[in-house]
C-alpha cells in the first residue's frame, strides 16, 4: 500500500495546557490507529505542526476533519507527498510539547515551526522536509 506524508501548520485559538495536549494526543491515537495513520504533533508558542502518514485518500479526509477543529485556525498544508516509508511507524500519534523545553532536538524543532510560520527555508530545505529529516536520523 502506498503512503503519503502530509505536514500542516496551524495556530491554536488559545494557549494549550499540558492536559489539553495530552487529550489531543489520546483522541488522535484512538482516531488514527483504526485508519492506518501514524505521525507526530509538535506544539510551540501557540502553533501546531503536525506530520501525518497514511494512504492519500485517508489523509485527505482526515485533514478536512482537522481543519474544522475549533481548537485551531489558519491551517495550511506545507507538504503533501508520497513517501517510500513511514518516519513515525511506531506511533499512531506522537506528541512533542516544545514549551517543556525538554524535547530532544528542541532548537531544531523550534526553528522548523518558526520557519513554517513565515514560509522561510532552512538552508535550502523547506520546514516540512527539515522536520522529516530530523526524525529520519
List the helices and strands and how they pair.
Layout lengths: L2 E10 L5 H15 L5 E7 L2 E8 L1 H12 L4 E12 L10 E4 L8 H12 L9 H10 L1
Parallel strand pairs: 2-5
Antiparallel strand pairs: 1-3, 1-4, 2-3
Helix pairs in contact: 3-4
From the alpha carbons, calculate the radius of gyration and give it in angstroms.
Answer: 14 Å
Helix-strand topology string: EHEEHEEHH
Q: What is the topology, as strand order, of the major beta sheet?
A: 4-1-3-2-5
Based on secondary structure, the structural category is alpha+beta
Low-confidence stretches: none
Largest sheet: 5 strands, mixed
The share of residues in extended strands comes to: 25-35%
What is the average of the pLDDT values? Answer: 92
Helical run tally:
4
Gap between N and C termini: 24 Å
**DSSP strand tally:** 5
- Helical content stands at 25-40%
Shape descriptor reads globular
Descriptive overview:
The structure is a single chain. Helices cover about 35% and strands about 30% of the residues. It contains 4 helices and 5 strands, in the order βαββαββαα. A 5-stranded mixed β-sheet has the order 4-1-3-2-5, sandwiched between helices. β2 (about 40-45) and β3 (about 45-55) form a beta hairpin. α3 (about 105-115) runs antiparallel to α4. The mean pLDDT is about 90.
Question: What are the main properties of this structure?
Answer:
alpha+beta; 137 residues
Short description:
With 137 residues, the protein is of the alpha+beta class. It contains 4 helices and 5 strands, in the order E-H-E-E-H-E-E-H-H. The protein is globular and about 35 Å long.
Amino acid at each position: 500500500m502506498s503512503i503519503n506524508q502530509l505536514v500542516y501548520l496551524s495556530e491554536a485559538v488559545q494557549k494549550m495546557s499540558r492536559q489539553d495536549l495530552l487529550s489531543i494526543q489520546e483522541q488522535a491515537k484512538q482516531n488514527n490507529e483504526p485508519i492506518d495513520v501514524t505521525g507526530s504533533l509538535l506544539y510551540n508558542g501557540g502553533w501546531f505542526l503536525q506530520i501525518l502518514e497514511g494512504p492519500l485518500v485517508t489523509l485527505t479526509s482526515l485533514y478536512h476533519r482537522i481543519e474544522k477543529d475549533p481548537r485551531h485556525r489558519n491551517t495550511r498544508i506545507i507538504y503533501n507527498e508520497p513517501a517510500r516509508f513511514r518516519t513515525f511507524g511506531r506511533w499512531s500519534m506522537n506528541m512533542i510539547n516544545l514549551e517543556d523545553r525538554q524535547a530532544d532536538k528542541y532548537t531544531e524543532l523550534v526553528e522548523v515551526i518558526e520557519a513554517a510560520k513565515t514560509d522561510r527555508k532552512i538552508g535550502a530545505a523547506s520546514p516540512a522536509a527539515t522536520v522529516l529529516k530530523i526524525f529520519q536520523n
